[in-house]
Specification:
By secondary structure, the chain is an all-alpha fold. The protein has helices at 2-39, 50-71, 79-105, 116-150.
Length: 156
């Protein structure tokens, strides 16, 4: 009975720690986003270049991802961690799509003029693909961690 209570207490403590970590990183990410809006001279309710929003999203995703991944490096990643990795992947490919638009306007890459709605669908599909790649990438990172943990240590 005592062992079961200790195990339940440990489990509740770990869940609370994970919840506090997730809340802190989400709060930190939103804080970075709100503090960077004046730095990029973004005014509410005005149209701004997509690249500004992409860079802002990438900064927020990095602040969201790094603490979670470093904190749980020696533990198994959960579906929340994989989803956070997906957010990072989505923001990276969103930035790539925004950069493509900038480079196309400067005629540095081959592109043709498309309606805004078509480009919005392209950006949405790109971000969704980035989410899937980031989600799956965390699984690959998990396999890499397990492989490295099972290798014998070399003493020189």
């Amino acid at each position: 009975m005592k062992l079961t209570l200790e195990r339940l207490s440990e489990h509740a403590s770990r869940r609370l720690k994970n919840l506090v970590l997730l809340q802190a990183t989400v709060f930190g990410s939103l804080t970075v986003g709100l503090l960077m809006i004046p730095a990029f001279e973004v005014e509410p309710f005005k149209e701004h270049h997509l690249l500004i929003w992409a860079v802002l999203g990438l900064l927020m995703a990095i602040v969201l991802v790094l603490p979670v991944f470093f904190e749980r490096w020696h533990e198994k990643y959960t579906w929340v961690d994989r989803s956070v990795g997906g957010v990072l992947g989505a923001s990276v490919l969103f930035l790539a799509g925004a950069l493509w638009e900038v480079l196309a306007h400067k005629h540095l890459v081959g592109a043709r003029e498309v309606p805004d709605s078509t480009f919005a669908v392209f950006i949405l599909i790109t971000a969704l693909g980035g989410f899937v790649l980031g989600y799956l990438g965390v699984g690959l990172l998990e396999k890499f961690k397990n492989k490295r943990a099972n290798e014998p240590a070399v003493i020189t």
